[in-house]
């Protein structure tokens, strides 16, 4: 597969630093590795839940605090240099010399490096990059604060992996970079600024090395049943697709070039979608997939063709990672890559299809097998399981739902307790929502909006709309820790008068109510068994606007506080 484009950008920049000081090879190794990791690491294993990351940092605050401080100093010293680099230049999206097979072997070392890192820290690094990409100006230069966040994240990631694996990456990559590249790159920037950045980076690597972090283990969320079905489907796909895969010319220079006619920004946007999808994937599945790639690269022949068994392992690993994320994340990547490489009848797909060694019949066989594999993976995705359970819940509870008098003022009245106690309970509800995946929250709002817009006079939506609402709520809850869900339950249930449930039961058919309740219990079990990793969204509010709003809000709060207290 084509190397991570972001990795290639970083490797170009890293070799630039070689001309700054050829005498300090040890420090240079750290320079190369740190910068190289700006890319490829975001496509290595993510973590099981976002909240675990915060717990990890709390446990290892000594090491991370030191790296955070060093990252601030590095960014301050390196930012003048960073602003001079023409990040939109196509040169940063091209492999610097050597053949695709050699680069594939080097990428194998990078993948192995990432697979040994702490997965919580890998996610933090990916999120930092995602935020920076989402706010990039036209020149492609992130803010100094964003650079600091990325430097800190990369430093922690490297601190959590063995030094030997870091050196494996350095040795593999440095051997492939043409010796003329550093001189060429240095001619494009101010040498004094480059030297200042290099000196600061050397200090940063020393801090990282002095503060090792022990990586934590991750448990898979992919059930044994799902894993078994995906593995079987992967075996079938691999056997059917292997003739086609062998017919592709993996030594073609195409794999080391950017897509013709596409800008750096267009390519980076597609990479960002991959990063976001990766952060939502099951960590254990990603480690499995990463190691399968490493093994396949080690065993491939001189033409870059892997063995059938390695092909099966890779497809099984990829299937499990995709099965651990919602379909929406997969489609975001699919759509962005489709726009980048072109439709099947043109662009890169057509180029591969028409190569002399490619048999059209083999290609169609591979495609048909892939569609079957895709269906197996789709059936195992968390949102699919929740969708199926939501339909069952809606069907079982709809008779009960139709009996409820939704136009009664009862449902717009707080059931007992005082406003202050309810305000505290509402705070738990708000905190619950703030922990959810915002894309899923917005999707939930949309389905509620659609249902409200078509409500009949009885206030009862259709069963199809109820299904959509149940599914949306299920996904939202699946994206937060169970502890926060229970915080809401405990806070609200403590305030509801014990007579309320009995009163409400008298207004409906008890049998239908119990059927709805039983179905709800089953639904909650499905939601709990299919956690969804929430993604962090970059803000569209500029730093200047944010600062101005904060200043204005402080003035408003100060002036309005006496009135509010009254």
Protein model, in words:
With 566 residues, the chain is mainly α. The protein has helices at residues 5-16, 25-40, 50-59, 61-84, 100-115, 119-134, 144-159, 163-174, 181-186, 191-210, 224-247, 264-279, 283-299, 308-323, 327-341, 347-353, 360-380, 382-403, 419-434, 438-453, 463-478, 482-493, 499-505, 510-529, 543-565. Helix 5 runs antiparallel to helix 8, helix 7 packs across helix 10 and helix 12 (264-279) runs antiparallel to helix 15 (327-341).
- Helicity, in percent? 55-70%
Shape: globular
Low-confidence stretches: 1-59
Strand element count:
0
Average of per-residue pLDDT values = 85
Summarize the structure in short.
The chain is mainly alpha-helical.
What are its keywords?
single chain; disordered N terminus; mainly alpha; globular
Give a topology summary.
Layout lengths: L4 H12 L8 H16 L9 H10 L1 H24 L15 H16 L3 H16 L9 H16 L3 H12 L6 H6 L4 H20 L13 H24 L16 H16 L3 H17 L8 H16 L3 H15 L5 H7 L6 H21 L1 H22 L15 H16 L3 H16 L9 H16 L3 H12 L5 H7 L4 H20 L13 H23 L1
